[in-house]
Amino acid sequence: GERVGLEPGAVGARVAPSFLRFGQFELFYQRDEPALLRALAVHALGRDFAHLRLQEPEAPLSRLLVLLFREVCERQARLVAEWLRVGYCQGNMNSDNSALCGVTLDYGPFGFLERFDPMHCPWVGGGAEYSFGRQPQAAAINLSILSEAWADLLRAVATEEGLTRAEADEAVQQTREGVSSVFVDAFHATHDEHNRRKLGLVSWDDDAAELWTSLFGLMATRSGPQGIDFTVFFRSLGDLTNDLPDGGDGLAAARAAATAAAAAAAGRRTCEKRRASSRARGRAAW
Predict the structure, then answer these.
(1) Is the alpha carbon torsion for 80, 82, 84, 88 positive or negative?
(2) Catalytic residue among 32, 96, 192, 249
(3) Quick one: average pLDDT of 221-229?
(4) How far is Cα 252 from Cα 201, in angstroms, rounded to an integer?
(5) What's the pLDDT tens digit per position in 119-165?
(6) In the prediction, which pLDDT does 286 show?
């Protein structure tokens, strides 16, 4: 008969301060259920964005909803910039995997870059739109779609509050600017600061941005099976800059270090490939 015994096991739990997602709001919008959409937004305001009521205690709901959405845009921008900083790829960044409070909802397909490839996606069904380098665009698209539901909600709330058509349109416009302005500005400010720190620069300007663009292209041309390791590459910059001449702002040193590190990393990959081929030939001969 079947023998039953104790076996080791474990329970995996997903933990987050909130699991409110873009998709939940979009669902009520697409189903034309404005009462549920409003109730969920008010719940989010009280649970995850209660500080907005403290900042503007006399503000009407329409104003608070505009502030909420714009803060969502800023949080998403900073989150995606952090992902790019550490080489993280969410893998399936649709609206159901985008948290309103701006945290990472980890699940199966996520992963970290090893060899640098801006088009890397750890999920086989992800495609280019969810790749590492396209995550800012994916976030912007998700926010843009969410803004449609938010605009519909704002118009309904504006009617309840007796706002004029012009006032309602202004609230909707401020919501849409959350994507086109707040998200874009917050992402670039955060991403540029991360890049400045990675390169060891004192300040960030057009020359620094040009260096980063060149470096990104250089790393991308070394991508693929023998590509540069994302984490090791930037760690190598810290090892090299101490012995390189500095023009005062660190830019010359960073430029020379980046070139040297890229060459060193590429050379190391070539050596590893040769050693692997040599070992393979040795095993075949044996």
Answers:
(1) negative
(2) 96
(3) 68
(4) 10
(5) 889 887 778 899 999 999 999 999 999 999 999 999 999 999 999 99
(6) 44
- Tell me the pLDDT tens digit for each residue of 24-80: 999 999 999 999 999 999 999 999 999 999 999 999 999 999 999 999 999 999 999
The residue ranking higher by pLDDT, 114 or 254, is 114
The pair of structure tokens assigned to 150 is 């938010």
Whether the Cβ atoms of residue 93 and residue 135 lie closer than 8 Å to each other: yes
- Which pair of structure tokens corresponds to residue 259? 């070139």
The model's confidence at residue 283, banded by pLDDT at 50, 70 and 90, is: very low
Whats the size of the chain, residue-wise?
286
Active site residue 207: no
Three-state SS string over the chain comes to CCCCCCCCCCCCCCCCCCCCEHHHHHHHHHCCCHHHHHHHHHHHHHHCCCHHHHHCCCCCHHHHHHHHHHHHHHHHHHHHHHHHHHCEECCCCCHHHCECCCCCCCCCCCEECCECCCCCCCCCCCCHHHCHHHHHHHHHHHHHHHHHHHHHHHHHHHHHCCCCHHHHHHHHHHHHHHHHHHHHHHHHHHHHHHHHHHHCCCCCCHHHHHHHHHHHHHHHHCCCCCCCEHHHHHHHHHHHHHHCCCCCCCHHHHHHHHHHHHHHHHHHHHHHHHHHHHHHHHHHHC
